[in-house]
Amino acid sequence: MRDRDFLNHFLEKGYFKNHSSVVLALSGGLDSMFLFHLLSNYQKELGIELFLAHVNHKQRPESDIEENELRKLAEEVGVPIYVAGFTGDFSEANARQFRYEFFREVMAKTSSTALVTAHHADDQAETIFMRIIRGVRLQHLSAIKERQEFDKGELIRPLLSFYKKDFPEIEHFEDRTNKENSYFRNRVRNLYLPQLEKENVQVKRAFLEFGKEVSDYQIALAEFSQTIDVEDLTQFLSFSEAIQRVLLQQYLSHFPDLNITREQFQEIHHILRTRSQYHHHLKNGYELVKEYQHFQICKIRPKSDEKSSNCVLDYQNQVHFEGYLFSFGIPLEGKNIQKINVSRETSLILRHRQPGDYLIKNGHRKKLRRLFIDLKIPTEKRGNAIIVEQFGQICSILGIELSDLSIKMKNDIMNTILYIEKIDR
């Protein structure tokens, strides 16, 4: 293929349309060197300023020589290069984490909004096959994305549609460890896939199509699940167990650092179907909270984590508090504006629940603790509830209950309105 064919693909896909400065992860191998060749030669056509980021893993005698050669090449071409030497206990996982942390640093230093890597179709097929061998869940068998969010910008893999055989032979460094079979990926690349190609010469393409089909199912499921409040157990349990498992997997995908096992997944599903109330520590700082007909997976709050201090709001003023805009006597327009009858005679206090709190309802005092139990309010929502106080009494528990004090026909001193708009949607 000609260089121009790759350029046309980049332009057609619009990879760099929204990026003026990009960082290329440069290993020195054929794939990244070819991508360097393309991006450096076509910076003007792509409308980008290019920066290079190289990690010397210090695992081979040639590593330092290659680093020096890459520095020289970058200087000749006139492209800035940033280099880091790996430190710590070497493993594939540790090395990958080190690289991407370094790439984030380079993006910040150069004010770049995109990280570009040279992953190609062979890498894609190998990754899908490796995940099948490891026995991961279906959602992890999807294709590697061409574009995805990364740090404060985007990670772009513009060569994913091409196989390594499509790249011309240009000057690059050959890592001799790629021929060794001590690493899993090397065994897949050097042993397993060549054997499978004897059965089906298009086996890599078959894996790619399989990954793409899984991706399509995931997108469709994500769109479908947006219409369902999975945390509402009345809705969740109305579906068959098969659909429940799929919805739960989709829900858990929102917590990428949770990494639960199949056994833990089954345990969570069992709890949701059988327990009425339950607090269950999961892993990595997460917990499952199930109360009445609602459940939530959330980070465990540190004991020292305190709510915002009390907020005093005077008449004809506005204030932002806990994700809401409170407007005391100044009208707000919109469909989702809440209104509470209050008095203009004294300030309002916005706060959270305190021990001994009560409100007057139908002429009787009612403890908030008992009110929350009677209304089956989940513990998390109890702690987050915003209380509006005036004259030393609770006017309202926002979105939960109004006291007699805020019912205008019972209190003619309530001569103005507190307007409330949720702003952190």
TrEMBL record:
Principal cellular location given in the protein's record: cytoplasm
Protein name per Swiss-Prot or TrEMBL: tRNA(Ile)-lysidine synthase
Gene Ontology molecular function terms on file: ATP binding; tRNA(Ile)-lysidine synthase activity
Alphabetized UniProt keyword annotations: ATP-binding, Cytoplasm, Ligase, Nucleotide-binding, tRNA processing
HAMAP family attached to this UniProt entry: tRNA_Ile_lys_synt
Function: Ligates lysine onto the cytidine present at position 34 of the AUA codon-specific tRNA(Ile) that contains the anticodon CAU, in an ATP-dependent manner. Cytidine is converted to lysidine, thus changing the amino acid specificity of the tRNA from methionine to isoleucine.
SMART domains membership: TilS_C (SM00977)
Gene that this polypeptide is encoded by: tilS
Species of origin: Streptococcus infantis
